[in-house]
Amino acid sequence: MLCCMPGVAFVPALLVSWSSAAFIISYAIAVLEGHVEPLVPYISDTGTKPPESGVFGFMINISALLGVITMYIRYLLIEKQNESSHFLRSSCNMFSLCIGLMGCIGMGIVATFQELAVPSVHDIGALVAFGSGVVYITLQSIISYKSCPQWNSYFVCHIRMAISAISCIAFIPMIVFASQISMTKIDWTPGEKDYTYHFMSAICEWTVAFGFIFFFLTFIRDFQKFSVRISTEIHED
User: Fold this and answer.
1) Which pTM was predicted?
2) Tens-level pLDDT at each residue, the chain (237 residues)
3) Which residue range is the domain that position 34 belongs to?
4) Which residues are the signal sequence here (predicted)?
5) Is residue 152 part of a domain?
């Protein structure tokens, strides 16, 4: 079905479906193995112990690669649109791409350095991934408004900005609550010390993560109208 999509729409579609599967599969394995409690663990908690750690690491690294490809195509698409409309400075488009690539690098760090094995490196990677991701989708929302009404509908822009706003709002308490946790563990149970901080932070983390997924879902329609040649040039179908 992905291969039948017009243009390059299969790229964000594959990113969304693969990333969703990565979260769900690793969560299901971790719960079935009894490694985490079913009620809102951290995303990283579901990929810390084997066998789910191997699945999580592999799939998240692929998601990071798909994210890089999607963001680069988005950059080329905006550059091509900007040639005729001149709605944005090219440096702004490049800055947005660089921020997005930083987020993908952060995802790779999260997937490679396990939470319990190297917690400091893992936490830095998570902070970079989520922080850069929030900035990237916010910048893309602003760029979408600038390209209206020729290249985007206001409805799509409103959806993107709403997702960005929710992700930004969730990102702040995610960091605040996580900073209050005094221990590094994955087997949390209700009633123990710092459980409330963990629970609230985990809810915010899942909100931000699926905010990214829903945001990239909005790229599919835009990508249907364009195709990329082997020379990396982009043209309208």
Assistant:
1) 0.92
2) 454 456 788 999 999 999 999 999 999 999 999 999 898 999 999 999 999 999 999 999 999 999 999 999 999 999 999 988 888 999 999 999 999 999 999 999 999 998 888 889 999 999 999 999 999 999 999 999 999 888 889 999 999 999 999 999 999 999 999 999 988 888 888 888 899 999 999 999 999 999 999 999 999 999 987 776 644 455 555
3) 9-223
4) none
5) yes
Residue 2 covered by a domain: no
1 in a structural domain: no
Q: Count the domains in the chain.
A: 1
Strands 234-236 and 226-228: antiparallel
Residue 46 pairs with which residues in a beta bridge?
Answer: none
Question: What is the Cα–Cα distance from 229 to 227, expressed in whole angstroms?
Answer: 7
The answer to whether residue 237 is domain-embedded is: no
Q: How many residues does the chain have?
A: 237
